[in-house]
Design brief:
Layout (H helix, E strand, L loop, with lengths): L3 H53 L19 E7 L9 H18 L3 E7 L1 H10 L3 E5 L8 H17 L4 E11 L2 E10 L22 H75 L1
Parallel strand pairs: 1-2, 1-4, 2-3
Antiparallel strand pairs: 4-5
């Protein structure tokens, strides 16, 4: 059995760790509320522009934007991975990267080329270790997503799609369900079709374009990809703070349990030492 001094030092060490995890839990809870508010504010715009863009894919117009054209053969795939820059958020990053890795193996088995854009330090490190072809990256986003930081790396994928270097583009991120649940998903970003947003050819919308169809469609589809990208990052950030708060709370609770067990062991060791001393005193007195 360890000595009383060793146990006391261990208790102090665990108590210090618990103070840190408790502080991180409170910080994550504060950031989580702000991230959730930001995400919920962005959701209506993202859902609406998805539906408008989906209806646009069935609109009757002579102009067809490259984002609306489905390729007959898919020879190359683009993938945007959205992860956090920091760890200590449970299995959040592991789950979405495991999902992405599974799809990457499928594409590799089918002989499809893969181009990757990594948003977040964890995803970047994973893709580098996996040997993926990384065409662009962005790290250090902080606690608030900024579209000007995101659109540059993502544009590398959009340009590759327009040039025909990739035939389909996916985005992988964690969708926020609630504080206790975050769902890793991979969604098709390009090409856009009405089926992706619940629209169908039986409910086609016909539009009048001012000043012309090309200007309106080009601008609208640019806003569409920007909105979906921003929404994915906002969802992932809300998921990150929720997962970190839960993980730190679990760590604090576990530290509390460990401290209780160590105190019990310390008391037993102390009681054994006292008993031993009493026994030695009684034996000495009897010998005298």
């Amino acid at each position: 059995m360890a000595s009383g001094k060793e146990i006391r030092n261990k208790i102090k060490s665990v108590e210090s760790t618990r103070k840190i995890t408790k502080a991180m839990e409170m910080v994550a809870a504060s950031k989580m509320r702000k991230a959730q508010d930001r995400m919920r504010v962005a959701r209506p715009y993202g859902e609406k522009i998805r539906r408008v863009a989906g209806n646009l894919s069935h609109a009757l117009t002579d102009y067809s934007h490259p984002f609306l054209v489905k390729r007959e053969q898919v020879k190359a795939v683009g993938l945007i991975t959205v992860t956090s820059d920091k760890g200590l958020c449970g299995g959040l990053n592991t789950n979405v990267l495991r999902l992405a890795l599974g799809r990457m193996k499928e594409w590799d088995g089918e002989g499809k080329k893969l181009l990757v854009t990594a948003i977040g330090n964890k995803g970047l490190g994973f893709m580098m270790r996996a040997g993926a072809d990384i065409v662009s990256q962005v790290v250090g986003l902080g606690d608030t997503p900024h579209l000007e930081k995101l659109i540059g790396p993502a544009k590398a994928q959009f340009d590759a799609y327009i040039k025909g270097e990739i035939d389909v583009l996916y985005i992988a991120y964690n969708r926020f369900i609630n504080t206790m649940k975050q769902e890793p998903v991979i969604e098709q970003l390009l090409p856009l079709s009405g089926d992706m947003v619940g629209s169908n050819s039986s409910n086609r919308w016909d539009y009048l374009y001012e000043p012309d169809a090309k200007s309106v469609i080009d601008d609208l589809l640019l806003r569409y990809v920007e909105a979906i990208l921003y929404q994915a990052v906002a969802e992932n950030m809300a998921s990150e703070q929720s997962a970190r708060m839960v993980a730190m709370k679990s760590a604090s609770d576990n530290a509390k349990d460990v401290i209780g067990e160590l105190k019990l062991v310390y008391n037993k060791a102390r009681q054994a030492a006292i008993t031993k001393e009493l026994s030695e005193i009684v034996s000495g007195a009897a010998a005298v």
